[in-house]
Amino acid sequence: MRDKLERLIAAYEELEKKMMDPGVVADPKEYARIAKEHASQAELVAKAREYLGALNDIDAAKEMLHEASDSEEKEMLQQDISENEEKLPALEDEIKVMLIPGDPNDEKDTIVEIRAGVGGDEAAIFAGDLFDMYGRLAQARKWKVEVLSASPSEAGGYKTIEFKLMGDKVYSVMKYESGVHRVQRIPKTESQGRIQTSTATVAVLPEADEIDIQINQEDLRIDTYCASGPGGQGVNTTYSAVRITHLPTNTVVQSQEQRSQIQNREVCMQMLRARLYEMELEKQQAEQGANRLAQIGHGNRSEKIRTYNQPQDRVTDHRIGFNGTYNGVLLGDTLPSVIDALAAADRADKLAKAV
Fold first, then answer.
1. pTM here?
2. Are 162 and 264 in contact (CB under 8 A)?
């Protein structure tokens, strides 16, 4: 452990030197890359220095203990050794967790798709409730929300809605939300007071840069059409809505939320890159033996991850058996607690595999 941490600190100090190199400073992209790597290592390096400092203090105290003749001095040195030795196990555990390789997508902005499933109008209303839940989470985390595409339901909510979340470590939080969400409650339209079970599917896609996914223009079929719904005089009169089909994978994306055809086309390309990137990730994971958490799962759209039970005022996350209150989670207040528990289970599993 000592050698590994010393190498880590040396590499960190080398990054600090590079950040002061005039050649690096003159290259904004390279400087930004190094600065980001430097910042990401800061907490780990601080813990590493604390751990090595405790080891050095123990070694120094033991050496002094050999030479000490005064009983009071010996007692003080022994106490110093004991206090530092007590620190080490906790510090070592923290460092082991920090050394677990992070998800390279954690820092990325995220595209989220919510689609009404089984349950008709109530499923669409539930999809709208989930969108509102994530909106509250975004507000609390100071993330920006941008609706990319939406198909509202006449009864309320959405048949489908796609939106982009932008901010600090969005994907690291939202990746645990991908899967089938199930709600059990009495619909507002139900006169007999019967409980109905409905579902909505959430897909969480890390936004892919052009560097991540190269798309050949000849592989695209681009259609334009008149936007529908509220939006002023331009709606239904100009061909501002855009639909793009990626022919090799038959992946279709569309947008009509933006004011111009150019803006809608850019939104479509963002969604297409994200979906193709997700396909590539799934292909890589399959080739590597699908080495993902059994409890946390990939968050596949076929995987039921959470049940919201209104009559029992309970929300259960089936992956880890976590229970919260219906209003607490759906209104966004305690949703972070559920996500924190999932992240902790994820870390514990990876740590167990790393040991």
1. 0.66
2. no
